[in-house]
Amino acid sequence: xxxxxxxxxxxxxxxxxxxxxxxxxxxxxxxxxxxxxxxxxxxxxxxxxxxxxxxxxxxxxxxxxxxxxxxxxxxxxxxxxxxxxxxxxxxxxxxxxxxxxxxxxxxxxxxxxxxxxxxxxxxxxxxxxxxxxxxxxxxxxxxxxxxxxxxxxxxxxxxxxxxxxxxxxxxxxxxxxxxxxxxxxxxxxxxxxxxxxxxxxxxxxxxxxxxxxxxxxxxx
Length: 220
Description:
Elements: H1 3-44, H2 50-62, H3 66-76, H4 86-111, H5 115-123, H6 128-143, H7 145-158, H8 170-181, H9 184-218
């Protein structure tokens, strides 16, 4: 059997892994952005109690590998009576890790907002919520685009770690097929192409968005 025939036969299985990788990435990245924005705003406005909790979360999350977090969710939680499916563990783990990285990215953007604009907002009587909504958040978000783009790419690549809890995403699919049929080169080629199909167009789009935002912000 030729290499092309081997690849053709494996495509339906890889297609399922491809779709699952996209779906888990979408949920994990969306949740990470929400968590990241929330934590960064809590820390930016130094909300008593909550800002300290957010800081501890960010430090713990960023300084522990996703592999360890997944093991904890999948194997330790059932001991205390919380049993999650492998897919849910993957999503929660990706959000837990990604939220901290997104928080740091958004915090950098919010800190980059001109102090004079914040003072001007206070001078006209804007509340903290209004400052966040109309001044800090829009400008900080635009300045966070480079970090946001880098974190999105990072989190998609981190889905390959899901193989340790047997989620049938792209990497796990390739490893299973290699273990069953030993066609290593063919299946690794499909794996690389699968990730390239996801990451290369996404990288191009994110780069264009970043340039557009940068031009719109600083080009006048």
